[in-house]
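Please produce the structure of this protein holding guanosine-5'-monophosphate.
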Amino acid sequence: MSETLFTKIIRRELPADIVYEDDEILAFRDINPQAPVHVLIVPKIEIATVNDIQPEHAELIGKMVLVAQKVAKQEAIADDGYRLAINCNRHGCQIVFHLHIHLIGGKQLRGSAA
Ligand code: 5GP
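Below is the modeled complex.
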């Protein structure tokens, strides 16, 4: 997989508003937020899309969801609720090919998908 700008953010070669970090995962605010809270939860290893997730990544994916839960609490949106989304490839409107979960909330969201 070719490197994306998220790898540069992970390496601190590009700036980002980081809200959480551990050995395996970084979470930072989306540059073009779709809601008052819009955070991207990103694994430090390069996995391009959901299609590239392997069984050995199962624990990491679980940890990413737990980080989303933690950041939602940190951002005080947990009780009101929020959306977690992963876009995959063209029909999913994925533009950055480094796996990430969108954590979106802080207002009443509409619809559920498309
Ligand atoms: P995707 O459509 O691939 O699921 O979403 C990629 C997200 O990355 C978009 O919401 C976009 O606004 C965000 N993004 C793109 N470039 C940057 C950047 O340089 N910094 C940050 N923080 N977010 C970015």
